[in-house]
Design brief:
By secondary structure, this protein is mostly helical. It has 18 helices and 2 strands. It is 75% helix and 1% strand. The protein has a two-stranded antiparallel ribbon.
Length: 539
């Protein structure tokens, strides 16, 4: 097990009463730090329209707006393995402080940039800070929390991500209603300062039984490989064809670099990631379930936001308020998952959660422009509860097979899986929405075509439902907006049924692949990992 360094005077040992008494203040601090990451990930959703405005924003083009969002995800996902390895090498407390400082500095700079290009750079640096933060937070929890309280602590850690994602649009809408666009980034600075004070005050110096040599070639391969794959996925979501050079070449190159990374890690005496952990069926199945669950969730939230602000006509702030139901569901599900895991086992708890989300995705195929808001809120709450049941036991199962000295690298796997899954889900949902919408609008006879609508405006309306509604308002063509809404709903039905089918695949993987018993000693990871048969069945 890990030990607490006594050099700084914090935490006099690795266990006992001192560790238990300090674990909850530590949990509060690291949960706040992690929630900041997810808050920033979602708060940008309500700011893109303002950023595109040349008077009130930066006059960003659609392509620049894509990169404002994508630069953060690209660097975040690409650098997560590096963040996990640095947390193992230099200690999660130091890595957490470094990540907070980098994130806060980039947020402050991003609030005052004068061009979209510099904002893209600031977002990329924020992604690097998040890559240091995310693995360190879970590593701190695993190493500083007594084993009998660890599952509950991971449940709280997991639920904070959903809370940050759902609250982000509400916070962004409130800030944009009262301040300038930069406020959505500047608000991070005081939060970062408070988190840094909390980390310095209560988080102990944690380290493994031995300090591992930093694997610089492995880190470089993992960053470059994941960066290439994620770049290709982002380009696919931007409307590129899968066989085009912008998608296929970076994905193939990234895949080749990741293959070289895996091969090197198998031979390395001090790997950034012990890839042999994937010999455990539970670890592999858990990774697949997390990937699928976050693909489905991110894809669903993508078209749900357009639905609420499009056919339903809600403002960004009102749409964000409705989505608080999902946050409440995630928190309740995460808190219920430990007790359900003890009664039903982790496998059936996760399976029930994934199945619940699949049902809500299917239900979206029956929504229209007049569906009551309360019914949508109920669907979001059930969906959030299902995701809460999934995240905690899957994360705990995966981390139960990771020795404490590799906790940062192990938590990086869960974080990379969530980020890559989210990127894939948005790309999948976006491609389906765009393709089906264009197909429906190309077959439709647009009101005002050939008279009020110029050829260029007609092409815009056939490409984007938002553009069609804007034209309908400016030209007083309500029938054009109604046509666009019908096409969008058809596209949403196709997307949501595809997302539901994906979730059902995750349900099958959770039933068949998740272990409900600890791995046998021969399956345990090398690098000095101890047999952990004493772990509870719910992991």
């Amino acid at each position: 097990m890990s030990e607490v360094s006594g050099g700084s005077g914090r935490g006099g040992g690795s266990g006992g009463t001192g560790k238990a008494s300090r674990s909850w203040p530590v949990l509060v601090v690291v949960v706040c730090a992690q929630m900041l990451i997810w808050l920033d990930t979602s708060v940008l959703n309500v700011a893109v329209t303002t950023l595109a405005d040349p008077a009130d924003g930066l006059g960003a083009t659609p392509a620049e707006l894509e990169w404002v969002a994508s630069a953060y995800t690209l660097v975040f996902a690409g650098a997560l393995f590096a963040g996990g390895a640095l947390a193992d090498r230099f200690g999660p407390r130091n890595t957490l402080l470094a990540g907070l400082a980098l994130f806060g500095a980039a947020s402050g700079a991003g609030a005052f940039v004068s061009s979209p290009g510099w904002l893209i750079v600031a977002r990329a640096v924020m992604g690097a800070g998040s890559a240091l933060l995310m693995p360190a937070t879970l590593s701190v929890i695993v190493q500083s929390t007594p084993e009998e309280k660890r599952t509950r602590a991971i449940a709280i850690w997991s639920s904070s991500s959903g809370l940050g994602v759902a609250v982000g649009p509400v916070v962004g809408g409130a800030l944009l209603s009262n301040f300038w666009w930069g406020s959505v980034f500047l608000v991070n600075v005081p939060i970062v300062a408070l988190c840094m004070v909390g980390v310095a005050a209560v988080v102990p110096e944690l380290k493994g039984p031995r300090r591992r040599r930093l694997d610089l070639p492995g880190l470089a391969l993992s960053v470059a490989g994941l960066g290439g794959v994620v770049y290709g996925i982002i380009e696919l979501g931007n409307g590129r064809t899968w066989y085009g050079p912008h998608v296929l070449l970076p994905v193939l190159l990234g895949g080749a670099l990741l293959a070289a990374f895996v091969a090197g890690q198998r031979r390395s005496p001090a790997p950034s990631l012990d890839v042999r952990l994937f010999r455990q069926p539970g670890f592999t199945a858990g990774s697949i379930v997390l990937l699928i669950a976050f693909m489905a969730l991110a894809g669903h939230l993508f078209y749900a936001a357009f639905y609420l602000q499009g056919p339903r006509g809600l403002s960004p702030g009102d749409a964000g308020t409705v989505m608080i139901a999902a946050a409440v569901g995630i928190v309740l599900g995460s808190q219920a998952s430990p007790s359900m895991s003890r009664r039903l086992t982790a496998r059936w708890t996760v399976a029930a959660g994934v199945l619940a989300t699949a049902v809500t995705y299917i239900a979206y195929a029956w929504l229209d422009g007049g569906t009551p808001i309360w019914f949508i809120a109920v669907l979001l709450a059930v969906q959030g509860f299902g995701m809460g049941l999934v995240g905690t036991p899957v994360t705990a199962v995966m981390m139960s097979g990771v020795p404490p000295q590799l906790a940062g690298a192990g938590s990086a796997v869960t974080s990379v899986t969530r980020q890559v899954g989210g990127t894939l889900g948005v790309a999948m949902a976006g491609s389906i929405l765009s393709g089906v919408y264009r197909a429906r609008m190309s077959d439709a006879e647009l009101p005002g075509a050939g008279s009020e609508l110029s050829p260029a405006a007609e092409e815009q309306a056939r490409t984007s439902a938002e553009a069609a509604r804007s034209l309908a308002d400016s030209l007083r063509l309500p029938d054009l907006a109604a046509t666009a809404d019908r096409a969008f709903l058809d596209a949403m039905y196709a997307a949501t049924l595809s997302i539901a089918a994906l979730a059902l695949v995750g349900f099958a993987v959770s039933v068949v692949g998740l272990r409900t018993r600890p791995p046998r000693p021969r399956d345990a990871p090398p690098q000095g990992a101890r047999d952990r048969d004493e772990q509870v069945e719910s992991a």
